[in-house]
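Exercise 3.2. Students should predict the tertiary structure of the chain below and write it as structure tokens, then compare their answer with the key that follows.

Predict this chain's 3D structure.
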Amino acid sequence: MQQFLLYASHHYLLLGAAVAAAVLVTITELRARATGVQAVAPAEAIRLMNGGALLIDVRGQAEFVQGHIAGARNVPGAVIASGAEPLSRFKDKPVIAYCDTGATASAAARQLGRLGFKSAFSLRGGLAAWRQDNLPLVKG
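Answer key:
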């Protein structure tokens, strides 16, 4: 214990930075858990898709046509915000929402959770992360 106190007294800035980093990580994790939406990485999304998960592209039709993940359905965020009626039969399946960066998809996944979907996820990083991992897109 005395060695730690000696170290801390000599390296107080380093110790302070470590404590600040730990606090920031804790806050970020608590916020993520409070939203109730889990963000999945592209590799985890592929695993869920292979298990029968429904993939939802919440971008507009024009962006969807320019490139989307194979098997995805285009359901714009406005449709989800108004009750997601076209998706009501999929409430018991895992659902993964994605957009360009993940921000809109996260809000859509939260809304799906409020609407009673059992497992609503968002794609962490959106299509940008999907492209960064060199995963294929479908055009048209």
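Discussion points: The mean pLDDT is 89. The CA atoms of residues 28 and 34 lie 10 Å apart.
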